[in-house]
Amino acid sequence: MKSAKIVGLGKYLPPKRLKNSDLEKIVDTTDQWITTRTGIKERRIAMDSSSSELAHRAAKRALKDAGLKADDLDLIIVASITPDNFFPSTACRLQNLIKARNAAAFDISAACSGFVYGLTCAWQLIGGGLYKNVLVVGSEVLSSITDWKDRSTCVLFGDGAGAAVLTQTNKKSFLSAHLGADGSRGNLLHIPAGGSRMPATCQTVDQNLHTIKMKGNELFRVAVRIMVDAAKVALSKADLKTKDLDLLVPHQANKRIIDAVAKTLKIKDKVYYNLARYGNMSSASCAVALCEAYQKAKVKKGDIVVLDTFGGGLVWGSCVLKWTL
Ligand code: ACO
């Protein structure tokens, strides 16, 4: 029976740092409010780089870590809510940048769960025998869709990219995945204009309808329950219990959300946090956090790692890995 395992990870965070003290000069906020309400201290800003350019740097590092060349790739999946364009896909642009001449390429739009959605697709396509080596990237330039006059959202988001290379194996490394969605609550977090429902016009620009709108309070309430459920369902599909988990790598939206998930699951010392340094990078958050946990040796061979994500859509995705790197 064929399956997949992660053989390389990479990340790229643009060097420009935007600290809470910088935001104090832009909107009516304080370092104290941002730190206590979210846990975020600073975030990275891509300046004039696009999602494919961030993805390019993360992908090159993941390929190097995997000991593979771009030509070895059969498929590239990019998860992003800030694609370079509607089309061509950011995955196609990335394919060209890394010169992965043998790879098919497509984008996934699943907000903060995009990386886990992408990993799950890659795992199944490899397991089904169609592909051997697949690159999955979460890449975001959220600064390009942030309303820098809205203090309730502009303090939350950052830019970055994380990448994973998966290859075929006979061993069991991906133990389970659980993906879900609730489109009835899409209005809790969205960009109103720019698509076919409300194409861009001078009015949509004047009315500031091309930036993130979020009902943070309502999202907060559902986020904890959904992330707890997603982790439990994925673990039970893998015939495991919460006590078997060695490391939870959650989406990094708010420290209070992650703390509440950890408390409910009773896994307080087994959670990886990095949002203090990067804020919420949507699809890149979980990808970068997984890469960092690996680079900092927070996971070792044989560990049970659970990825647990939640975001706009609504969408959620969790998967259980037996660590092989
Ligand atoms: N600085 C100072 N005060 C602020 C700021 C700020 N940056 N932002 C909001 N406030 C004020 C509000 O105006 C409000 O004031 P009022 O009481 O006078 O009206 C007060 O602080 C409380 O506001 P709340 O919105 O209730 O603050 P809350 O504690 O809920 O924190 C936050 C807001 C951080 C957004 C939180 O609700 C949250 O993290 N929500 C979940 C976000 C999430 O999970 N998103 C999904 C993933 S992201 C994705 O998919 C791309």
Please characterize this protein's 3D structure.
This protein has 325 residues and is of the alpha/beta class. The chain contains eleven helices and 13 strands. The chain has a five-stranded mixed sheet, sandwiched between helices. A four-stranded mixed sheet has the order 8-13-12-11, with helices on both faces. A two-stranded antiparallel ribbon has the order 2-3. Helix 8 (216-237) packs parallel to helix 9. The longest helix is centred in the C-terminal third of the chain and has 22 residues, at 216-237. The two termini are 20 Å apart. The mean pLDDT is 97. Bound molecules: acetyl coenzyme *A.
In short:
The protein contains eleven helices and 13 strands. With 325 residues, the protein is of the alpha/beta class. The radius of gyration is 19 Å and the shape is globular.
Core attributes:
Peroxisomal Thiolase, Chain A, domain 1; binds acetyl coenzyme *A; alpha/beta; globular; about 325 residues; 13 strands
Rg from alpha-carbon coordinates: 19 Å
Major sheet: size, sense and barrel closure?
5 strands, mixed
Helix count, per DSSP? 11
Give the percentage of residues in beta strands. Answer: 15-25%
Overall number of structural domains: 2
Q: What's the average pLDDT?
A: 97
Q: Please list the strands of the largest sheet in the order they lie side by side.
A: 1-7-6-4-5
CATH architecture descriptor text of the largest domain: 3-Layer(aba) Sandwich
CATH uppermost class of the largest domain = Alpha Beta
CATH superfamily of the largest domain: Thiolase/Chalcone synthase
Spans where pLDDT lies below 50 across 5 or more residues = none
CATH domain fold name of the largest domain:
Peroxisomal Thiolase, Chain A, domain 1
Bound small molecules, which ones? Answer: acetyl coenzyme *A
> Count of DSSP E strands?
13
The level of helicity is: 25-40%
Shape: globular
Given the helix and strand composition, which structural class is it? alpha/beta
End-to-end separation: 20 Å
Order of helices and strands: EEHHEHEHEHEHEEEHEHEHHHEE
